[in-house]
Write a structure and sequence with these properties.
By secondary structure, the protein is an alpha/beta fold. Helix content is 31%, strand content 16%. A six-stranded mixed beta sheet has the order 1-5-2-4-3-6. A four-stranded parallel beta sheet has the order 7-11-10-8. The protein is globular, with a radius of gyration of 23 Å.
């Protein structure tokens, strides 16, 4: 099997592998049990998703144990995973808190694309090696090519040349990608399409869906940003950091020769690219870029993503610092906004978000009139932050991994 990052991973006490394969798995439940037993025996941690269409995982452990895992996985089950591409990197410790192996319907949620590379391996785009992808970018312009970033982590790193810059679909989850394509499909039909993601898996179905909708020339970066950085590092066209789905959060040039910062603080627009468990959107809990200076000076310690920036000043997780008059103003403004929300299933979550916040304010107002105001005042002005969006613990700091 092909392996990446051997040199960089061997310099660390722990290795991290990223891998996937679209292939029909006859008995996913039994396969999941075997993977669980193997990982526990080797002392590995991480996440593996297993479904009828294949496997999608990332694991960490000492390099010798990781190598054993790769060898055993490829040789067992009649070579089911033979030829899989292992993408390695290094870590100073286990970047996962535990081991979770889950049985799923889709190894990547597609939002109803109805494409299956396991059943039809040719349904997707042309797989381009990092070198071929690099050369394609050299010869592409905004006029003849659409370069798509099939992720939500565009803010801290993306591909850019002097002639073309990657398009940000502005999606929070990959399942939203289908709606973006459906809405903007006309821009793709008469152009060459190039796309990339973290390790390659999302491009498998994204490219297949674009072809299904009528795109004629679709190419995808094989091995994703991870493999591209292994080969080109700071000399390539990827600028910034590559977001990873563990406690390391993001990785730059494996050789450490690039210090370019692409991201911007959401508060002051200063150059900044470190996602932190303490700075998530007050409304949806997605990570938000907030620089150290703004974290220190902001009065309420509440942050807002691009989708929810319009709620700054009226929507707060912690209501203790506010008096009754201010809470009444917040509730009134939220009710006005609520009236403007369209009806229909697609707006259900937004209406629910507003209703819950209005109800929360009403409860806070009731507490103030029921003699609990002194208790509320005792916590007013304290620096508070939202709990981990997965485990719900205030002091988690993302250690449950599920924060990301």
């Amino acid at each position: 099997a092909e392996q990446q990052g051997e040199t960089s991973s061997s310099a660390f006490p722990f290795a991290v592998i990223l891998f996937y394969k679209y292939i029909a798995i006859p008995d996913p439940d039994t396969f999941a049990e075997e993977q669980q037993s193997l990982c526990r025996r080797l002392g590995l941690k991480g996440r593996i998703l297993i479904g009828p269409e294949g496997v999608n995982g990332t694991l960490s452990g000492p390099l010798p144990e990781i190598k054993k895992y790769e060898t055993i996985s490829e040789s067992s089950n009649e070579g089911l995973l033979q030829g899989i591409q292992w993408k390695r990197s290094g870590s100073t410790n286990h970047p996962f808190a535990d081991l979770q192996i889950k049985r799923v319907k889709e190894i990547v949620s597609t939002g109803g694309m109805a494409v299956n590379p396991a059943q039809d391996p040719s349904c997707g785009g042309v797989h381009l090696s990092p070198r071929s992808f690099h050369e394609a970018l050299m010869n592409s312009t905004q006029e003849d090519t659409v370069l798509i970033d099939v992720r939500w982590e565009y803010a801290i790193g993306h591909f850019k040349t002097k002639n073309i810059t990657a398009v940000d679909p502005d999606t929070k989850t990959y399942s939203e990608f289908k709606r973006w394509v459906d809405r903007d499909m006309d821009r793709f039909k008469n152009k060459k399409v190039l796309m990339y993601c973290t390790g390659g898996i999302r491009c498998e179905t994204a490219s297949a869906y674009l072809k299904k909708k009528g795109a004629k020339h679709v190419g995808q970066l094989q091995g994703g940003i991870h493999k591209y950085l292994d080969e080109f590092g700071a000399k390539g066209y990827f600028k910034g950091k590559n977001f990873v789905f563990d406690q390391r959060v993001a990785l730059g040039d494996p050789k450490g020769t690039s210090t370019e910062v692409v991201g911007k603080c959401s508060m002051c627009a200063a150059s900044y690219d470190n996602f932190d468990p303490g700075t998530v959107c007050t409304v949806c809990r997605d990570p938000v870029l907030v620089c150290d200076g703004c974290r220190k000076t902001d009065k309420y310690k509440e942050w807002y993503c691009r989708d929810h920036i319009y709620l700054r000043g009226v929507y707060y997780t912690y209501l203790e610092p506010f008096g009754a008059e201010e809470l009444l103003k917040q509730a009134e403004k939220l009710r006005e906004m609520f009236k403007e929300i369209h009806t229909g299933k697609q707006h259900k979550n937004r209406r629910r978000t507003f209703s819950r916040q209005i109800g929360k304010i009403e409860e806070a107002l009731a507490s103030r009139t029921s003699g609990k105001e002194s208790e509320l005042k005792s916590t007013a002005g304290q620096s508070r932050r939202p709990p981990c969006r997965t485990c719900g613990e205030l002091e988690c700091n993302g250690k449950c991994w599920g924060f990301w």
